[in-house]
C-alpha cells in the first residue's frame, strides 16, 4: 500500500515537472495595429462596400478555419473587377482574429490577396465594419465608384487578371514546348 502511494507520487511529480520543463506551444490572443481608413486603402488589395448574399461553410486553411462569403458590391475604391466578389474570412472567435459576417447585412470590407491560394482574405484586424458603423471611415475614403453588373462580369473568385494572364500564358508556353519536343523527336526517327 505504502509502495503504491510512493509510486503514484513519483509519477505525479514526473508529469508535473515535465509540463513545467516542456510547456506547450505559446498562444497569443489577436492583437491588431490601429490604422485609419486611408492607410488601409493604401495597404489592402480590395476595398468596397457590399451586402453578404451567400455565407459558405467553414473549412480548414493552413491550420485555421476560414469561411467563404459572397458579397454583392455596392461601391468600390480599389481592386474590384466584378459585381459579386468572394472573400475568405478567418472563421474563429475574436481572440484568434476571426470575423463573422451575417447574410443580408452590408459591410465596408478591406481584403488582401493571399499569395498562396490567390483568393481574397480578410480578418478582424483588417478594419471591416458594418455599414451602419462605417460613417467616419467612408468620409475618410471619399466617394467610391458605384458598381453595376454591366460594369464588370457577374462574379470574381478573388483572382486578379494578372494571375489569369500568367496561368494562361504558362499553359500556352507548355503546349508550345511539347509540340516542339514531339516535332524534334519525330524528325530524329
Unreliable stretches covering 5 or more consecutive residues? none
Q: Give the number of helices.
A: 4
Note the overall shape.
Answer: flat
Biggest sheet features: 5 strands, mixed, barrel
Q: Termini separation (Å)? A: 88 Å
Element order: H for helix, E for strand: HHEEEEEEHEEH
Mean pLDDT: 80
Radius of gyration in whole Å, from Cα? Answer: 25 Å
Query: β content, as a range?
Result: 25-35%
Specify the helix fraction band.
25-40%
Number of β-strand runs: 8
Strand arrangement across the biggest beta sheet = 1-2-3-5-4
Alpha-beta classification: alpha+beta
Structural write-up:
This protein is 33% helix and 31% strand. It is built from four helices and eight strands. It has helices at residues 2-21, 37-43, 135-141, 161-188, and strands at 46-61, 64-78, 82-90, 106-113, 120-122, 129-130, 145-146, 153-156. A five-stranded mixed barrel has the order 1-2-3-5-4. It is flat.
Amino acid at each position: 500500500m505504502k509502495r503504491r502511494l510512493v509510486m503514484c507520487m513519483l509519477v505525479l511529480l514526473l508529469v508535473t515537472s515535465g509540463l513545467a520543463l516542456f510547456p506547450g506551444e505559446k498562444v497569443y490572443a489577436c492583437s491588431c495595429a490601429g490604422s485609419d481608413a486611408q492607410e488601409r486603402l493604401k495597404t489592402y488589395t480590395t476595398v468596397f462596400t457590399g451586402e453578404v448574399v451567400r455565407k459558405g461553410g467553414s473549412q480548414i486553411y493552413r491550420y485555421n478555419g476560414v469561411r467563404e462569403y459572397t458579397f454583392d458590391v455596392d461601391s468600390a475604391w480599389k481592386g474590384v473587377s466584378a459585381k459579386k466578389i468572394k472573400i475568405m474570412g478567418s472563421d474563429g472567435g475574436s481572440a484568434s482574429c476571426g470575423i463573422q459576417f451575417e447574410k443580408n447585412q452590408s459591410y465596408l470590407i478591406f481584403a488582401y490577396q493571399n499569395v498562396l491560394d490567390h483568393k481574397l482574405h480578410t480578418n478582424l484586424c483588417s478594419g471591416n465594419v458594418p455599414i451602419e458603423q462605417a460613417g467616419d471611415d467612408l468620409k475618410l475614403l471619399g466617394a467610391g465608384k458605384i458598381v453595376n453588373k454591366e460594369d464588370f462580369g457577374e462574379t470574381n473568385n478573388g483572382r486578379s487578371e494578372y494571375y489569369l494572364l500568367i496561368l494562361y500564358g504558362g499553359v500556352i508556353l507548355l503546349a508550345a514546348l511539347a509540340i516542339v519536343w514531339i516535332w524534334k523527336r519525330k524528325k530524329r526517327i
